[in-house]
Design brief:
Layout: H1 5-8, E1 13-19, E2 22-31, E3 45-55, E4 62-70, H2 79-82, H3 84-102, H4 116-133, H5 139-151, H6 153-159
Antiparallel strand pairs: 1-2, 2-3, 3-4
Helix pairs in contact: 5-6
């Protein structure tokens, strides 16, 4: 008789979210049993996160599994807290990459030789960061701020701390 690993070892924490036309379930398992038995000197816990995606009508179910290690003890990071960094990744993806794609049209960039693509990405990130530090928040505002800085050199110089 075949038994599911999930039934033998139920997840220690589960979340269910609905949005963007899909349902996403996240299950997390943690263990501190490998502490001291690994080549990772500061390992405190190993983590397994399984994400299950399906459409709102329940069809087209997909899943993926992510493995991680952490130096945080069970007291510092319970299973629920260990789900947060994976979710936080998408905040960065949505806040920076969306602006780079929409405002700078980076996907169609013709810069492809040597270190130039990396340098241009760094300059775009610098511009986004300077504008965010100045209080500009979304892609539309950043586009407007870039146009303003292009017309007003004094505003641009003030962003980098020059009078």
């Amino acid at each position: 008789m075949k038994t599911s690993a999930s039934r033998l070892f139920p997840p220690q924490h589960t979340t269910l979210d609905k949005g963007h036309g899909r349902i996403e379930e996240r299950r997390v398992w943690t263990s501190g049993e490998l502490r001291g038995f690994s080549s990772f000197p500061h390992l405190s816990q190993v983590v397994v996160i399984k994400r299950i995606y399906s459409k709102l009508d329940g069809t087209q179910q997909l899943s993926d599994v992510c493995y991680a290690v952490t130096s945080l003890s069970e007291q510092q990071a319970n299973p629920a807290r260990l789900l947060e960094p994976g979710r936080g990744h998408w905040t960065i993806e949505n806040k920076v990459h969306y602006v780079r794609d929409r405002t700078f049209d980076e996907d169609r960039s013709q810069v492809r030789k040597k270190a130039a693509p990396h340098a241009m990405a760094s300059l775009r990130n610098l511009a986004i960061s300077l504008l965010r530090l100045a209080g500009v928040s979304n892609a539309t505002s950043i586009a407007a701020a870039l146009r303003h800085c292009g017309r007003n050199i004094r505003a641009t110089l003030r962003l980098i701390g020059l009078p």
